[in-house]
Please model this.
Amino acid sequence: MDYKKFLDVAPEVEEAIKAGKPVVALESTIISHGMPYPQNVETALNVEKVLRDNGAVPATIAIIGGRLKAGLSREEIEHLGKAGHEVTKVSRRDLPIIVAKGMDGATTVATTMIIAAMAGISIFATGGVGGVHRGAQKTFDISADLEELSMTPVTVVCAGAKAILDLPLTLEYLETKGVPVLGYQTKELAAFYTRHSGLSVDYQIDSPAELAKAIYVKKEMGMQGGILVSNPIPEEYSMDPDVINKAIDQAVKEAEEQGVHGKESTPFLLARVKELTGGDSLDSNIQLVYNNAKLAAQTAVELSKLNK
Model:
């Protein structure tokens, strides 16, 4: 398989990977589908800055003109931000088609993991992962992110699964697939906009060095799949659970009434929750992404020491 003929790794990213320096992948759906322009571009550039400030090279992942990209220029980020929902949201099933057609694509967690692994990047920071949707017992609506975590050797640092999902079933699915779910300085799964879900994760890890050791050992043992790290939103940005849960319940009800499902479900729900909370949920979303980027960068720094 010569997948590299479809892959462009930015010079800075390629140099860092070859030299064993810390590199962290970032997704691009958050740019095109996560928030409005120009806030999306500003946030994307700020996340890259957080990575640099903490010692890691950023590699924002996307598909531009049918080329898989590991590391975007400012102009490419601007392009995705302005195009917004006109850019196709790409998961695993879409990837070969979008490349074959020479289209632009914004990568989900699953696709970011795939392209990061192709480029040789083992740590990825995002907001929240997809999971088992509410009512999946009837719809079978389960994010491809979970399946990817069971197959692709990339550690995903997030603020838990998105709170619009069925969190207990998401944890059960990950357990069935053998994906380690770790809590950063807690044994409780973070609930995206809030720090507490009432659900226990597999293990607590207390430092970037401890997390890096777990990633290193898993790789050295030759085990497939990734690790999911649940990093709670900072206390000062955590939302009132009653307020956010009421907004989520209403958004889910509206999605059902309007027949919204599949890849359109998450963008619809996040946008509606933002409207119902007067924008507070978007502010929290941005801050939790920055927080995850910081932990991912610090972990990448520690992992680079172990790999030498």
Notes: Residues 194 and 238 are 5 Å apart (CA to CA). The mean pLDDT is 92. The chain has 13 helices and eleven strands. Residues 280-306 form the longest helix (27 residues).
